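Item description
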Amino acid sequence: MFKSKMNLFGWVEAESSDYQLAYQQLGGNFSTHPDALAFQHQHADLQPRYFVSRNQDHRLQGALCTWRDKTIANAQATRGMLQGLGIPVPSDELLLPLDRRIILPVYVKTLSAMHAEQVINSSVKMNARRELCLAKGLGDGGFSRKAKYSRRRELNQFLEAGGAVRPHSDFSAAELMDIYFELYYLRRGEYPLNKALNVRFAEELRDHIFGNVLFFKGEPCAFQLIVMAESPRWITFDYINIGVDQRLSDYSPGSILSWVNISEAWELCQAKGKVMRYSFGNPTAGYKDQWCYRESLRRVWSV
């Protein structure tokens, strides 16, 4: 029944290799990246199926991964399927490998605004005003001159007081997760789920980890867990969570690290001539508006 519905609207079942090729050609975000999906499929019973859409010349124009014949992989509705897994794959936005106007016959509440002209049966209406917070850039129309000056001053004061910035690549996957878990505990009084699996995630998907670790007088004091995915025309960054030593709140290490990481992401995208899409997730906290602009998420009406 599910396959028949997909076929009716132009989606044909395919192999994971077809999906991977479509992603390479058309792009997406980390939530739809073949590497992220493959890791999830190894560690949860998700019953994945792949579907593609082709034009008359047999060229790929879209690809989907579905789970349990119910929904698109990493849609908001799949959170229950992943309960207890505890790995940093977000479900805040779905940016699909898609390059045509088409009907999606699968219900979704978190479709990217980038698909506004492509998915015929999508709308921002009656979607509970769901939004995504995307970091401002360092170019025109982004952070103000005053904001840039203030952030750079904070960073310089931190460095002069004994702070340091080190890239995540300085550390093994196990060391990086040790830092993250301990700083997360200092911030929240509890540890994240499933440390062993997170270490394995960081080992196997290290090319998708992004960002830096802040140190103060030789000890780690802040680390933001960020995952990234590169597409032909853009690079996405998803800020999952932060671990931070609250005892250093006078120096605002969280804000300093946000500035350092966004600046580095902006420079990377500029060097590659690609658009930066740096997500802080949904607008769940007021501080996000200092860093971000908002984009409406789209609801797909199932048919």
